[in-house]
Every structure is written in structure tokens, then in C-alpha cells.
Amino acid sequence: MLHQNKNVIKNLLRLVLSVSIAVAGVNAYSSTTERCVKNSDCESGECTFGKCKPASKPTLPKSKKCISNKDCPSGRCVNGVCKPDPLRCHKNSDCASGQCVSGRCKTKASPITPKPKRCVSNKDCAQGRCVNGVCKPDPLRCRKGSDCASGKCDRGQCKPKASPIAPKPKRCISNKDCAQGRCVNGVCKPDPLRCRKGSDCASGKCDRGQCKPKASPVTPKPKRCTSNKNCAQGRCVNGVCKPDPLRCRKGSDCASGKCDRGQCKPKV
Q1: How far apart, in Å, are the Cα atoms of 180 and each of 43, 72, 167, 184, 191?
Q2: According to the model, what pLDDT value does residue 16 have?
Q3: In whole angstroms, what is the distance from residue 129 CA to residue 137 CA?
Q4: Taking the CA of residue 68 as centre, how many other CA atoms within 13 Å lie in the half-sphere pointing to its CB?
Q5: CA within 20 to 30 Å of 57's CA: 44, 85, 148, 267, which one?
Q6: Residue 124 or residue 22, greater confidence
Q7: What is the DSSP string of 185-222?
Q8: Strands 81-82 and 77-78
Q9: Share of the chain above pLDDT 90, in %
Q10: Residue 2 backbone phi and psi in degrees, to 5
Q11: Nearest to 100 by CA among 109, 90, 108
């Protein structure tokens, strides 16, 4: 009788243990895989075959590598990685714009786009062409000469304008040989924009740092005459002394009255 009681007790203990394990398993399963009917019943938003799928871990975007601030959309490169501006800053170097005002990073000022230069023809443009009244650069590829400011398209590339040929400097011996400026080392050169002394200027006159122009030569008044005798040189023509011509045809062309082989002979 005692032996039978022991077997009953063992069986009861086994039954209790199995029930406890089953209940624990149900609780563990229900905590990870909830029962559901539709997606909105699940925290993950996915209901598959009556069970909620666990929410997947969010994947963080890879940090963009950089060398300088220019490589980052945020504008700040820290230890080779692009980072956004902090919520609070202490100094200018904390901000991509380099400006920390009252603990807040100021945004970068947008670069000012230069206004297009107005033009009438290609000559008004330092580079490129005049298109619809505005200077525009030459295209990367051209098909014909009219696509280029220089008018030359060679193998799909615009050729640059030919540089203007600089005139050769005029040779000289003295300032008198130069229409303008001075004779320096055998070459005519213009007066300097600023002068210190008279020798800096062709006219020899420096006034308040500016070269004064050469004085125009005074043309002597013609000498009045009645006859050739009144003229030291040349002839009396219409009451005025005039020099002999370079070439003569007859004696009356000369003051001496002698014309020899086209040249006036001097008075004896």
C-alpha cells in the first residue's frame, strides 16, 4: 500500500512539473510573437500568418568620409567624417559657417552671383560672345565658327582670339625724334603717369606730379616786302617773303633769277 502511494506522489509531481514548463513556454512565446489579425495590431506593423513579426533594428546611415568642410553637405568635417552643426556652440570653429552667435551656429551666406555683363557685340565681352545682349562664355563644344567669340571652331573646340600685334617701338636719338613722350635708351616711351622732376618728362616740365605738354613752336610772322631786295632769303611774292622752291623751271622762280638744272642758284 505504501509503495503504491509513493508512485502516485511521483506521478503527481511529474504532472505539476510538466504543466509549469508548458505555462512558462506559452508566456515566453506570447511575449515575443503576439497573436494578430491585422498589421495595426503589431508594434512592428507586420502581421504574418496571425503572428506579429518583431520590429527590425533601424540601420544607421554610414558617415560620409571627408577631407575638408567643402566635402560635406553639412559644411563641417571633423576627424575625417562629416558631422552636422551642434545644437549649441561655444566658438566659431564649432560651426561650418565659422560664425557662432549667442550660442547658435549661423548659416553660410549664399555666394553672390555676379550680374551678367550687358553687351551690344562680341567686342564688349572680355571673354565669350554677346548673346541676346548678355556676355556668355564659349560653349564646351562648337560646330561652326559663329558658335565662338573668335569666330574659329577647330575640331569641336573654340580657338582663342588672336592677340593684337603690338606696334614696334620707335627708335630715337633725342626727345625731338618722338612725337610723344621721351627718348629712353634709344626708344620712344610715353611720359610716366606721375613725375618727380622735369627730366622725367619730354617737355622738361613736371608740375604737381604731372608732366606738362610740350609748348607748341611759335610760327614766325611772314616778313612783308616790296621787292626781292627786301628778303634776306627767297623771293617777294604778293608782298610776303617766301623761300625759293625746292625745284625751279625758270629764272623767275628764284630770288637770284638763276635756275640751273632745276635748282635755284644763290645770289652772287
Answers
A1: 94, 59, 15, 12, 8
A2: 58
A3: 6
A4: 1
A5: 85
A6: 124
A7: TTEEEPPPSS-SSGGGSTTS-EETTEEPPPPPPPPPPP
A8: antiparallel
A9: 0
A10: -65, -40
A11: 90
Distance of CA 134 to the CA centre of its chain: 17
Complete DSSP assignment for 35-84: B-SSGGGSSSS-EETTEEPPPPPPPPPPPPB-SSGGG-SSS-EETTEE-P
Question: Measuring CA to CA, which residue among 166, 144, 171, 173 is closest to residue 156?
Answer: 144
Residue 30's SS3 state is helix
Q: Which amino acid is at 191?
A: D
pLDDT tens-digit map of 77-135 = 888 888 887 777 888 878 877 788 888 887 766 666 778 888 888 788 877 788 888 88
Residues composing the chain: 268
Above pLDDT 70, what percent of the chain? 80
Q: What is the rounded CA–CA span in Å between residue 211 and residue 201? A: 6
pLDDT band at 27 (very low <50, low <70, confident <90, very high): very low
What CA–CA distance (Å, rounded) separates 159 from 163?
A: 12
Quote the strand ranges of 106-177, DSSP E.
129-131, 134-136, 153-154, 157-158
The pair phi, psi for residue 15, each rounded to 5°, is -65, -45
